[in-house]
Amino acid sequence: MTLEMMFVLILLLAMFAALVFEVARPDMVIFSVLVILMLSGILTAEEALSGFSNEGMLTVALLFIVAGVVQKSGLIHQMMEKWLRNSRSPRDSMMRFFVPTSAFSAFLNNTPIVVTLTPIIKKWCEDRGIAPSKFLIPLSYATILGGMITLMGTSTNLVIHGLLLDFGLEGFSLFTLAAVGIPVTLVGLIYLFTIGYKLLPDNKGFSQRLKEEPKEYIAEMKVTEAFGKPGKRVEQVGLRDLKGLYLIEIIRGKERISPVRSTTVIQVGDRLIFTGLISTIADLQKIKGLELETGTNIDLDDLKDGKINLVDAVVSDQSSLLSKSIKQSQFRSRYDAGVIAVHRNNERIKSKIGDIVLKPGDSLLLLTGTDFVEKYQRSNDFFVVSSLDTPAVLKQSAKKSWFSILMLLGMIGAVTLGWLSMFKAMALAVLVFLAAKIITPQEAKKYVHFNVLLLIASSFGIGAAMRKTGLAEWIADVLLDIGKPLGLLIILFMIYFLTNLFTEMISNSTAAVIMLPIGMEMAHTLQVDPMGIAVLIAIAASASFVTPIGYQTNLIVYGPGGYTFTDYVKAGLPLSLIVMVTSVLIIYQQWF
To answer: Which residues form the RCK C-terminal domain (predicted)?
Structure first.
């Protein structure tokens, strides 16, 4: 092993550690490694930036826009709601929901599908007294399985396609992966409808617990004659920057004042409604003239008077809020929203709201203005998954909505018939959407997750460094020394297992970019079809079922389902093993 190879290997190990321990956002960690490789001279500027012009990465950017347009149409939302009305039992509902969901995810980005459908499932379950936790992990898993069927099903497939083109190979066709993806999806869904359903926890949803335990979230105090500060503003009497509490409404006779501003005047007889960490209400009782109303009949639902919404949001793994306390991030002024409570691992964090340091997957209960969902539903900071007073999804006319779907189908047809490459078809679709004014350039920009693209583009540079220094070849030789005596089938299992392990620890696209150069070197040494190895790595990199952090859709349902880390292990590990065995055996028969 040369010094350059050792340097790159040490950098990779440090990168893995930083990603696993969440030292910084994943895109920042990987981009930092890329910059170090460039500054050290291992990569030239051209090699380091090659990922930013890669066809696969650019296709992912266009996929975000196309998926956003279809999501904006609201047709999937409407179809699912109508389809569920006729379901008879939980198992029947699962089949009705997850079979079409898998089909949709074969042609659309998984993340907007899960963000769109999570509120529908939550509300449907809560209306029927069914635990949402029985449905939300299967929602994520069903989209992951469906994404394995086509080239455009997930960004990972497109990234590997782009890498194959860089290797001088022809890349994937639209349905290259279907030979493995369809059987794996069928087997996976059967597991979810039977064994998986029994292994999932029976947790109450966030909003269900909120309705059952409103006194944990809301308190009322009355301003008496002894208050002594009539006519003073909220900030003057010390009610603005409370530790763990948030003054959300003032009831004055028949008048309701909300939102409460720092300049709002307090008067004798006012009823002050607080939310947050109610156990700290004792601090307020020290203020002379404030009396706790122990028999309050105010409920959080009573606050939804058209001016305030209750919103459930999940902190993203790409969020700029990570590693900061809520107070440090200036959450209230930044988003014009108050944090009522934070849930993590199915437990409410019992500390002062402002002091809580947010982590990926944290579920936030927010009090917001009526336009919050519309403004922030595409934010990179969190996924809005609320089913409470969410504005209507349908934003387009019926003609534009159907035109969006027909355009998507036309694009799929053009790629299937070989008239256009995936990149050209998506570029044409985006151009038509802009020309027809179905979306504006500003909306298109909001749909693109630039942090995800930075992560993917930076990963390409790291893969290039592995190839250039010979590290990929060295690792391939080590693996072959272990696997050769055991046969090709065992080598395939080794490649799958290693890729899958990486994807559970770091991001799926990064795992694919690191493993593909190693896989290509092994295919060259063994003189086998490299396309089979590429398909194997694509499936293994997508099959993230064991942790909530391995795949973004797992993280989205983490908080709303009230799951713990071990719930993913219990339900996901058997599915992961089933997918591994099915995939490897099919690939072995098909390509080798």
So the answer is: 205-290, 298-382
